[in-house]
Design a protein that fits this description.
alpha/beta, 6-stranded parallel sheet, 8 helices, globular
Amino acid sequence: NFAALSFGVSRAPSIAMSEPGAKRLKTGRKRVAIYGGAYDPITNSHLTAAAELVHSGHIDEVWLVPCGKRPDKPKLKTPPIDRYVMCQIAVNATFSPDFPVKVSDVECFEPEAMFTYDLLSKLRDQHPDIDFCFVIGTDWLQPGTNISDWRSINRNWKQGDPPDQKTIVSGDRLLREFDFLVVVRPGYEVEKTAEDPSGLKKFGPRLHWLVMRDGLTFIEGNLSSTELRKRIGLASDKRQAGATALQGIEGLVPTALLAYIQRQQLYTS
């Protein structure tokens, strides 16, 4: 429901040229993929996934969106502004100036992380000349998860109204108003039938597989932010300090990120 996700190495099903790509050719409007996450911290796997989204040809730009504060995730203690700065450092250190991967601070100064519909609606209002799509993995299309049940802020709610009315179900509007790019995650299959050869129609009208051009494979790593924090914490427990504590994540994040983590004393307490 919040704009956060991660992937693993995968090959998307072989289907025809993507509808999102065809739509972009028809309209001439810029298409931007929103790749949300906690990015606590951003890893080389995140950066590879962002690059591959661009290489797929489905979209014109990728915007990394570090989520705001998450009361539902007490382990997410790193302030949004630090996670945003780390994303900027990583993108600038990894990609050439013209490569279309950017970082958005749209959630950094919000009191809490934004629901996906609220996030995409705000971006649409701020950039009416851009078509935004949201990137999800097939883990969001499994039994027990239903995008149509996702919620958003009730703009008509006022102080004194019942607290349970502060949010409303808006998943159907989300699915009607925005495109989704779906990336296969290993172990999370989507059933295809003769009536629905893509397997996606039953989830909503605007879901499309992310298919690489020319039969290429969508390349990612399985590196998680959780593993990086674990390695830094393990070094800290052994009373290693400063740069020594960060040696366990060398090569797993852009080198420029290490200095920022050390200077801000992140993940070491």
